[in-house]
Design a protein that fits this description.
The structure is a single chain. The protein is mainly α. Helices cover 74% and strands 3% of the residues. A two-stranded antiparallel sheet has the order 1-2. It is globular, with a radius of gyration of 22 Å.
């Protein structure tokens, strides 16, 4: 015989949930984040990175190295949910060695690009040799997964250091950072107010076409202003840089969402209040940095 009554514990839980939802102090953002904490953490990170970019270059190296080291650990940790054990020792050697090798290449005259290539090759070699001398089950999956992490996190993130070695690289890197921030900010604002049409509902249901358009328009505004007042070049360069940066940043965000959905995790970790894991912040930057570097190289005569 069926019944429509609910257990007392369920009723109490539902009542508590309703009370929390109605409480003004507990109201969550549409993105499901603690918005004040997210803003505070975001501003702190932005200030530290801008100090490194504009005045203390070695601080930027420290920040990038620490970020990719922890980001690589987060991804390896998430892969354990699918019983993929990536060896942490060679992974951390590579995560630290790739940005440091890029920096050393720039300082010694070898070249930052050559330093990046050499350090990436060395990191993959260490990953393979580690499994050769310490063989375990699923060696192939572990090596392939470890190589994937090295390519995704430290390799792509090191393009920020390549960008810094270009003429007026500190201003270019600051512009990239502002474009990524404007992509997130304008996309969030416009998407929250007007978002009705999901961008990729099966991967990231909260992202909308309206938010994506808001990201492009907002980033174009910031890009034009940066090109006129900071880079002192033609305004249309800012349009190109903004559109490609938003496209790359959005792709990076969706790529991480796809991986998290496949692994069955909401956030890579909970290290950053209001944000989740560090990779939940790096996902846009690691895709946008190589694009910005390539645009800079191609349009080098305009910078």
């Amino acid at each position: 015989m069926s019944t429509s009554s609910s257990p007392p514990a369920a009723n109490a839980a539902n009542s508590a949930s309703a009370a929390n939802a109605a409480s003004p102090g507990k109201k969550a953002s549409r993105a499901g984040r603690d918005l004040p904490a997210a803003i505070g953490v975001g501003l702190t990170l932005l200030i530290v990175v801008l100090i490194g970019i504009l005045w203390v270059p070695w601080l930027l190296l420290v920040v990038v190295t620490a970020a990719v080291s922890f980001g690589a650990w987060e991804v390896a940790r998430a892969l354990r949910s699918r019983h993929i054990e990536v060896p942490q020792v060679p992974l951390q050697i590579g995560a630290i060695g790739i940005p440091v090798g890029t920096w050393i290449g720039a300082l010694t005259g070898i070249g930052a690009e050559q330093g990046l290539a050499i350090s990436l090759f060395g990191a993959v070699l260490v990953m393979v040799l580690y499994r050769v001398f310490l063989p375990r089950r699923d060696t192939l999956r572990a090596v392939i997964s470890g190589t994937f992490i090295l390519l995704w996190v430290p390799f792509l993130a090191s393009f920020t250091l390549l960008l810094l070695t270009e003429p007026r690289g500190n201003i270019l890197l600051a512009t990239l950072l502002l474009l990524v921030v404007s992509n997130d900010t304008f996309g969030y604002i416009v998407g929250s107010l007007f978002g009705k049409h999901p961008l990729v509902p099966k991967i990231s249901p909260k992202k909308s076409w309206e938010g994506f358009i808001g990201s492009i328009l907002g980033a174009c505004l910031i890009g034009v202003l940066c090109c006129i007042f900071l880079l002192q070049t033609q305004w249309w360069v800012g349009i190109i840089l903004a559109v490609l940066t938003v496209a790359a940043a959005t792709t990076g965000d969706l790529a991480e969402s796809m991986i998290k959905r496949e692994l069955g995790v909401k956030d890579m970790s909970r290290i950053l209040p209001g944000h989740g894991g560090l990779m939940d912040r790096l996902d846009s930057v690691v895709f946008a940095a190589p694009v910005a570097y390539l645009v800079t190289v191609i349009l080098s005569g305009h910078f």
